[in-house]
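Lesson 9: reading folded outputs for more than one chain in a single document. The general rule is that every protein is listed as its sequence immediately followed by its structure tokens, and records are never interleaved. Here is the first one.
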Amino acid sequence: MITSLQNDKVRYVRALQNQRRARQREQRFVFEGMRLVEEAVRAGVAPAFVFYTPPVEADERGSRLLASLHAVNVPCYAVSEQVMAACSDTEPPQGILAVLPIPAHPRPEYPTLTLILDCVRDPGNLGTILRTALAAGVEQVLLTPGTVDASNPKAVRAAMGAHLRLPVATLKWEKIAEAVTGSDVWLAEAGGETRYTAVDWRRPVALIVGGEATGAGERSRALARGRVSIPMAAGVESLNTATATAVILFEVMRQRGGLT
């Protein structure tokens, strides 16, 4: 059992949890909790290694999960509760975590539904949006340079495994413009001149959503052909970013026949 906080693997996990630079350098991030590690196994993504505490091994579900990891030769290390607490980004710690490669899913050459997130700085919002985007059939998510890192632990936790299936890339504006060539680009914004239900979302489209604090930037406005808005009750100025994104994306899905 690993009990020292000075252990090399412990220090490695803590660096991945706390430092964006470490995640980018290593191209790895951390999945915490039984459900997320199970998602990785189902997706066929082999962790570099796994930490777990003895109560997880004693649990029937945890024992099955560890057996499935051993079956594909994933190194699994028992650690003390103190070590798990030091390595965990959750409170209380969930007893198991896995170090995974950050997926590099190929982006579609001719996308029909792209989501662009501009200046979304809250990692919880970002993760929730990624989870919604996967459910709504988004083919790629592009993050502007001002958007929070998608491998942030809180974003990873809120995305609930979306990283394993959804192409997500942080790109410069020039590359974003190239990536949506041939798509109608719409900016979601309070006060937008077009009601979101009035857009023909069956065409190849890209939706830009800005962060709650500052909204989308000038580059977004320059790229968009128009602005869409969601009608709200009198006196209400705006919705949470993740909520607004979900409302529009599921209208896209409805128009495309994905909802019955």
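And here is the second record, again sequence then tokens.
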Amino acid sequence: MALKQYKPTTPGQRQLVLVDKSQLHKGKPVKALTEGIHRKGGRGNTGRITTRHHGGGHKRSYRIVDFKRRKFDMEAKVERLEYDPNRTAFIALIKYTDGEQAYILAPQRLNVGDTVVSGKRVDVKPGNAMPLSSIPIGTIIHNIEMRPGRGGQIARSAGTFAQLVGRDMGYALVRLSSGEQRLIHADCMATIGAVSNPDHANISIGKAGRKRWMGIRPTVRGETMNPVDHPLGGRTRGGRTTKTPWGKKARGPKTRNNKSTDKFIVRSRHARKRTQ
């Protein structure tokens, strides 16, 4: 979909650039496929802020999206494409031949009236879901499971995708958009194509109030705070290294600590930086 610009009739619209959603469904979602969201405004069970910059925002209902795609060998027709306020990608409402409805992540080049199906031997076209063992090498994929039956976890954001680059010993080698190459069990499901709404990266919010509508509260730099509020606070930074509000180094030290899955990473996403 194309980008939509506005006439500069107000200061907020002068820089405003949004995605044109004229081709999306304009009504409400299917009520049976939604559930309520209880938002806490970034506060924990003691009432104190545990996650900063959360709060406010427009009321939402959560769309129950089928990330597992385990209804094999049953065709489903795309009834409409919808906007989902809970994610950057668009979603598609599909209806199976037995009458059941479901939401799935809409890939690029998926249109209303198209047919999608999941199974071990199906056509390689956008929207169809297959195990990694059945997908041809070099195929662009998204919504990739990390464990069989758990549901897609990788490449779900707008415009993202991964590529299947090899298979060996019951595992598939997948190259992620970060440059990381990772081994994933060949029985895990993945969907063909790239995620919809690639123009999301070109959006210009236009004004601070739109961030508040999204439930994001203002962020203040540590350098502008007082010394009592932040390690970098005060009149000058004084040559101090970048730190978090709690005094830990913000750049340099590794934050990933998951030794149990390190063996599945064949090539780190930082390998490209080291060679330069």
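What the second record shows: The first strand starts at residue 3 and ends at 5.
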